[in-house]
Amino acid sequence: MATGGSKLAIFASMAANLGIAVMKFIASFFTGSSAMLSEGIHSLVDTTNGILLLWGIKRSKMAPDRQHPFGHGKEIYFWSFVVAIFIFALGGGVALYEGIKHLTHHDTHIDHSSKMKYWNYGVLIGSLLFEGASLVVAWKEFRKSYPKGFITAMSKSKDAATVAVIIENGAAVIGLLIAMAGVSLTYYYNNPVFDAWASILIGVLLTVVAIFMAVETKRLLIGESAVDEDIKEIEDIFKQYDVLEGWGNIKTMHLGPDDILLGANINFKDDLTVGEIEPVVKEIKQKIVEKNPDIKHIFIETDSIKN
Question: pTM for the whole thing?
């Protein structure tokens, strides 16, 4: 996915989360809702995560240097992994702590006045609208590059930044629904236990999201290959050349969302000379790049060449 798309999704998410965090903290202060406090922390963490993702995108675009000859593309994967840690520690951890604390201290004050009640609901509904709008922006940008089904698109995407925004915003919408349910049950039964359990559920949700993001980002950090469709396209190009007797050892690795390293062995017929081989290899490389511009580093070893 284009970096511009990633940045647009991140900026939209940051703007929404910052405003929502302020509203949630104010509501939590006046109502004493632990679920609302957890949601406020969640939104603040998401805002900070946006800054980290933007920093990762900027670093990933740095030019190659002596120590990093293939560039800094994996910076975005590293910072996406840091984001997963933040969600786990500051999002899920604090939400669980607040929920358990309020669950074991039933004397927590919840303001049941109509004014505070409706103001609380107003913040939740407003937050749902903001988060929903941010999620739509991120999803539209994502679908420009991956127009097919959700599961297929998510499995193919190597754009960790935009995927992180989509997952965060999706979790935020679910978390808000949980918070609304907790607050509603608390008011209806006049029992803050429901609010505490809502906070715990939000913590569990964020923990699951963080683990999922960490696992997915880890695969990219240690060197995940291109998808099967990309490799098939490379093989289809090899099949176009009758001078090839075979090929193999096709290896790919994502150095960034739009930066792929490719290595392969191709076996030419025995009666070809070096002068005949070189233009064919050059043409093969050109066709591969034309088919998939993300393949920026190509290393092809040839066999059965006569001088």
Answer: 0.77
